[in-house]
Amino acid sequence: PLPLQVLCRPLIMTTKRTIQPFFPASFASLNATSIGSILYNHMLLPDTVTERCPEVKITIGSGGHTTLRQPVLLLVAIIGVVIGLRGFWSLPKYWSLSFGAFAIMNVDAICLHCLSPSIDANDTYPERYPLLWTIDTYITGVAAVTLSIALLERWKSQNLSRSFWILQMVGILCILFFYVDPPLVPIAASFPLELWYCISLLLSLGAGLLGIFGDLFVNRKAFRWTTDHVFLICSNAFTLLGIALDGFWCRIFGTLLADLLTSLTLMFLGSDLMMWGAYRWIQSSESKKHMD
Fold it and tell me: Which of 7, 12, 23, 290 qualifies as a FRET site for 267, CA 20 to 30 Å off?
C-alpha cells in the first residue's frame, strides 16, 4: 500500500456497510476519480471492517422468523425518542420543532436500521427502503436546520423565519427530485437529499459553535464554562470517534460489545448526548433571560 495509506489507516477507518448504502451517489462520485478511489477503498472505508465485524443480529421467537438488528442502537434510538419528545413538549418555538424532528428521526432509525431486514452487499437504502430513507434524510435535515435557526436567532437577536421557510423549501425540492422519474437533470436521484442531510448537519455544527461557544471567541470575559458546555463537547467527541475509529474498535473488540462501538451506534449516542446537553443549556439560558 501507499505510505500515506499506511500512515492514515490506524487513524481514520470507518465501514462501507454503514456509509456507502446510505450515501450511494456521493460515494459513487468519490470513487469515480483516481485519488477518490484510493481514499475510498484503502484509507477511509476498508472492507475488512465488514468482514471482521458482521452486523449484530438477535433472533426473536421460537420460529426464528423475526430478527432484530443492532440491539444497542435500538436502545440508543429509544433514548433519542424520549429526549426529543421531552424537548418538543417543554421548549419554545424552533427549539421545540428541532427536538420533535429529532424524535421522529430516531423512530425512523429504529425502523430502518433495527427492524427492517438487512440490505444486500450491493444494495442501497434509497433503492431498498426509499420511504424510510427519505424520512431519515429529510427529517434529520429539518432537525439540524431548525436547531441552526434557533441558535442563530439567539446569537443575532433577529427574526429568521424567512430563512427557515426558504431552507424547508429546499428540502422539499430535494424530496421531489428523488421521486421524479426521469430526473430533471443528469445526476443521481438521491444526490440532492444526500447533500441536504450533510450540509444541514454542517450548518448546525457551525451555528452551535456560534450560538453556544460564540462568547468564548468574541467576548471571552463574558463567557463562563458550565457542565453543559463540557457535555456538548463530549457528545461531539463520541460522534467523531464513531465515524473515524470504526475500524480501530473492530480490530480491538470485534463484536464483544455487540454493536456498541459501531460507527452508527456511536453517532446516534453522540446525537443523544448533544441534544440532551442542548436541552439543559436552553433551559438554563431561558431561565437566566427571565431572571434578567
Answer: 7
